[in-house]
Amino acid sequence: MFSLQKQIAMVTGGAKGIGRGIVEALVEAGATVIIADIDTDAGINTAKELGCEFVELDVTNQALCQTRINEIIQKYGKLDILCSNTGIFPQATIEEMTEKDWDFMQEVNVKGTFFVVQAALKAMKSQGSGRVIITSSITGNITGFPGWSHYGASKAAQLGFMRSAALEYARFGITVNAVLPGNILTDGLKAQGETYLNQMRATIPPHTLGEPKDIGYAAAFLASKEAKYITGQTIIIDGGQILPESPEALL
């Protein structure tokens, strides 16, 4: 079960962090994976380590997104799986946030998702099948965090887009779903500092942070043939972080 043998997958933002965890899980399940990332050095190194192909991609470039999808179709004849994972999360309070801060977040997280998913859906429609998995977050759709109002807005927007996309493409054998990570121990999270990490551990029932591959396994399931009847849905991977009603529940 849940084999991805002979499946062609593209993972945006797959060079490191959660994206790398997704790549690892897809490879483990047997898929041929193309890592698409703006970070060329990290992308090349990850591709070598995991036996994947790397292509450079800036998801905010609509024409380039279409070109990269076209190249995959030309080389492999199909694209079975798209994991739209690219995302940024710089912090800024509402008072100090500039229009540029807001726009950059939406440009990468929302418009970038739209561009690459749009290109993939066109290819998948002609095939009559496909799996799209978007990396969103618990922040924005379920929770909030000071300093990330623009991030939360972008992640909630991704889910609004996902649900309508799922409806538009269901008749073509395509599913569109999302994974919602909680606090996953990536380099980006580590950069928030040990105080922040300890605060987060204290709010999670097992008092541990997730690993990138935890997200990858959920994405691999949604990419499988067994998940064909699941679309427009979200899977929360947060160690139960959103469950407690009070601090007492964490004792």
UniProtKB/TrEMBL annotation:
A single Pfam family, by name?
A: adh_short_C2
Query: Which keywords does this chain's UniProt record carry?
Result: Oxidoreductase
Q: What class of enzyme is it?
A: oxidoreductase
The answer to keyword Electron transport applying to this record is no
The molecular function terms of the Gene Ontology recorded here are: 3-oxoacyl-[acyl-carrier-protein] reductase (NADPH) activity
Which InterPro entries does UniProt cross-reference here?
A: NAD(P)-bd_dom_sf (IPR036291), SDR_fam (IPR002347)
Enzyme nomenclature, EC number: 1.1.1.100
Domain of life of the organism encoding this protein: Bacteria
Tell whether Oxidoreductase is among the UniProt keywords: yes
Regarding protein family, the annotation reads: Belongs to the short-chain dehydrogenases/reductases (SDR) family.
Q: What is this protein called?
A: 3-oxoacyl-ACP reductase FabG
Organism equals Ignatzschineria rhizosphaerae
